Amino acid sequence: MPIFPPPGRLSLTIDSHELRRAFSAFATGVAVVCARPRGGDAFGITINSLASLSLDPPLLLWNLRTGSRIHEMWQRVDRFSVNVLAAGQDDLCWRFATAERNTMDDGEFTVSDAGAPRLPGCLAWYDCAVEDSYPGGDHVINIGRILAVERRDDREPLVVYGGRLHDLGRERDDEAS
């Protein structure tokens, strides 16, 4: 039985800059996770690690760097929203990507029926309850149980590729299922 990778071809040292550059070759959507921790102010954090996990039960996952101020605040969160950014919402992306500007004033968001802060004008919203979390290297993998979902069809997504924000551009004829 062949061994993969072949002996001697496995690099035990991976340059973190090169790894980050390789990860940036994968185009992905941009979202802001918003929450109000018990006894604290509402906050948001820009992510591009959003993934669907399960349809039954409805679950999603996203990652958060350990040791950050947001990670500590996250320990007191029960409900949260994932706000999928639309093309033209670059300002929200950059604002919540900056640690010093993560907290939100009451007028900047609405509160969903599930009790989670929501940003206006997004392409989609997922209202979630914290389901579980697992260690993943220098990050925590957060799992949310989706309580409600809403999507707008009149907007295009904001996309990150190569470390830069992009709009989708032209649509292809073939459709992913």
Secondary structure layout plus pairing:
Blueprint: H1 16-23, E1 28-29, E2 31-35, E3 43-47, E4 51-55, E5 58-65, H2 69-74, E6 79-84, H3 90-97, E7 110-111, E8 117-118, E9 124-136, E10 139-151, E11 158-161, E12 164-167
Antiparallel strand pairs: 1-11, 2-3, 2-6, 4-5, 5-10, 6-9, 7-8, 9-10, 11-12
| Amount of helix | 10-25%
Overall pLDDT metric: 88
- Low-confidence segments, ≥5 residues, pLDDT <50? none
In percent, how much strand structure appears in the residues?
A: 35-45%
Fourth CATH level, the homologous superfamily of the domain at 29-151: Electron Transport, Fmn-binding Protein, Chain A
Q: What would you report as the Rg, rounded to the nearest angstrom?
A: 18 Å
- Number of helices in the DSSP assignment: 3
Give me the side-by-side strand order of the main sheet.
Answer: 3-2-6-9-10-5-4
CATH topology of the domain at 29-151: Pnp Oxidase, Chain A
- Count of strand segments: 12
CATH C-level name of the domain at 29-151: Mainly Beta
Named CATH architecture of the domain at 29-151: Roll
One letter per element, helices H and strands E, the order comes to: HEEEEEHEHEEEEEE
Biggest sheet statistics: 7 strands, antiparallel
What does the overall shape look like?
globular
Q: Kindly, what is the distance between the CA atoms of the first and last residues, rounded to a whole number of angstroms? A: 35 Å
Structure classification: mainly beta
